Amino acid sequence: MSAPDTLRQLQDLADRVERLADVCRRLADENRSLRHSQEQLIAERAQLLAKNEQARSRVEAMIARLKSLEHNA
Fold it and tell me: How far apart are CA 9 and CA 15, in angstroms?
């Protein structure tokens, strides 16, 4: 194998490694973004579950008061 061929192969390999490094950086950025989105969605879900529980408790309390009024009437 001649020196120019070896140099070309080395440059091709270096180009491939650089492209692979670019892909790794993009995937790391995307992963970071997705993890952030996931954290936000988890927090939002927790808030919605808490609101749902509060609403359920209020509805149950209203039902109990209505039943109490019904029995006293």
Answer: 10
